[in-house]
Amino acid sequence: MQEKIARTYNLLSWDDMCLVHAIADIGTLSGAARALQISHPTAFRRLNRLEQKMGVRFFDRARVGYTATTAAEEVSGLVQRLRTDVLAVERRIAGRDLRPSGTLRVTTTDTLLFGWLSFGLLEFRRAYPDIRLDLVVSNDVFSLSRREADIAVRPVHSPDESLVGRRLGTIAQAVYLAKTLTSGPETDEVTTSIDWIGPDDSMTYPEYDRWLRQEGLVQRCRVRVNTVYGMLSAARAGLGLSVLPCYLGENDEQLSRVGGTIPSMATDLWILTHPDLRKTERIRIFLDHVAGLAKTSRFGPVE
Questions:
Q1: What is the pLDDT of residues 183-217, one digit of tens each?
Q2: Helix, strand and coil in the chain, % to nearest 5
Q3: Handedness of CA 272, 275, 276, 281 (dihedral sign)
Q4: In order of start, what are the domains of the chain with their CATH numbers?
Q5: Comparing C-alpha atoms, which of 248, 295, 237 is closest to residue 110?
C-alpha cells in the first residue's frame, strides 16, 4: 500500500490533495465542499474520479460521514506539512522586508479599536503613508502562525509562548452608571437599588461572572448582553450598573464612575507578532508606536 501511494502522488493535483485533506479533516463531503467553496455534486464527482484514476479508496463512506483510510491520512498529512512549510517561508520572506512600506494586518477587539487604539492611528498613517493598515476587528483569536494577521493587540492573561511582543500595561476596570440616574450624595442610595448589567452565557467573561458571585450581585444582574459595547450602551441608557474598561468609561460623557478600579478584573494588554516577522520594518515601527501610545494616552490602558 505504501509503495502504491508513493507511486501515485505524481497523479495528484494540488486541488485533489486539498479535497482529500478537507474531507479527512471535516469528516463529511458536504462540509468539505463548503470549506472549499464548491458544490456538493462537484466534490462528489471529483472524489469518485480521483479514486478511479488512482485505484485507491480514500474513504469508507457511511450515512453519518466519511472515515479516512490510510491513503487519505497520507495525503492529508502531506497537505498539512506543505501548508506549514509554505507559511514558514512566507513569514521568513516577509521578515526580511526592511522598508517602512507594504500591508500590515492588525487584529484587535472592537472596544480596543474604537475606544482607544484608533485615536493613535492617524498619527501613524501620517508618518508612514506607504504602510497600508488592514484592521481586523474581531473578538475571536486570530492565528499569527497561519498569517491570519501580522500583529494582535488584545487582552491576554498568558500569551502564546510561540509569539513575541510587549506587555503594554494593565486594562483597568471599574463600575459605571448613567449620569441621568444620579448626582452627588444620592449615588449610594441609587447603587444599592438599581439593577446590574452583565455578560450573557454566549460571552466568555469568567472574570466578570466570578466578581458578580463574590459580590453577591448575581440575582440583581437582570440585564445580560453578549458584548462589552452592548453593556456600555445599556449602561448609557440607564438600564443599570456595569463594569467596563476604564478607557471606555472615562471617555464617555454620559457615564460616571462609581468607586475605584477593581483589581481582580484588571487584565494585561499585549501587542504580539510572530518571531519570524519581528525584524520587518513596518512591524517594528508599529510595535514601537503602539507601545508609546499606551504610555502617553490619557485614559489609556496603562494604570
A1: 654 555 567 788 999 999 888 888 999 999 999 99
A2: 50, 25, 30
A3: positive
A4: 2-93 (1.10.10.10), 96-171+267-296 (3.40.190.10), 173-265 (3.40.190.10)
A5: 248
